[in-house]
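FORM 12-B: Structure-to-Sequence Request
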């Protein structure tokens, strides 16, 4: 009986430790998967200037991103196969809803090739209303915008001010408070 009680206590302790580690991982934005990285590429840095681009959205419409102008932009480079990316989408939606009327444009750029219908369904199921664009493959097989923006892995997030300057750059998941500070900084608040 004592041995059985000891085993039960040990299992409970292990269970509590496991749950505790999972909660700690969530709080520190750790994920069970490594961030998928692309070779030795390094992300653009704060102060770098970005350029305009045109890509198709999930409805087949050509959309132009123009970084110069009023307000600020958040670009999220992601993949439907990237668990940290999918986990971050509700935060991105929340930022879109909170700041869209204050001059923020949110664009998520999917690096998944021709999976537009799957991505459209994912966005619909998640209730994501920010713009989702599909990066295009160049002749050499690289992704046009991801290469221009030096995306080393997913998720990669850039916050850009109205002067086309990166004010925040991060590879990996980001927390809500950190994202809000980055957006408010870019908006000049």
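FORM 12-B RESPONSE
SEQUENCE OUT:
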């Amino acid at each position: 009986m004592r041995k059985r009680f000891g085993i039960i206590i040990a299992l409970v302790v292990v269970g509590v430790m496991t749950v505790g580690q999972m909660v700690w991982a969530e709080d520190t934005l750790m994920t069970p998967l490594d961030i998928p990285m692309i070779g030795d590429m390094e992300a653009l840095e704060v102060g770098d200037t970005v350029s305009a681009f045109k890509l198709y959205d999930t409805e087949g419409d050509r959309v132009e991103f123009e970084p110069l102008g009023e307000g600020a932009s958040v670009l999220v480079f992601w993949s439907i196969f990237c668990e940290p990316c999918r986990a971050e989408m509700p935060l991105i939606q929340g930022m879109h809803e909170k700041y869209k009327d204050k001059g923020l444009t949110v664009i998520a750029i999917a690096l998944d090739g021709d999976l537009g219908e799957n991505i459209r369904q994912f966005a619909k199921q998640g209730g994501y209303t920010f713009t989702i664009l599909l990066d295009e493959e160049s002749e050499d097989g690289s992704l046009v915008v991801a290469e221009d923006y030096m995306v080393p892995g997913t998720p990669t997030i850039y916050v850009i001010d109205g002067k086309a300057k990166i004010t925040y750059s991060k590879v990996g998941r980001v927390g809500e408070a950190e994202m809000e500070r980055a957006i408010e900084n870019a908006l000049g608040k």
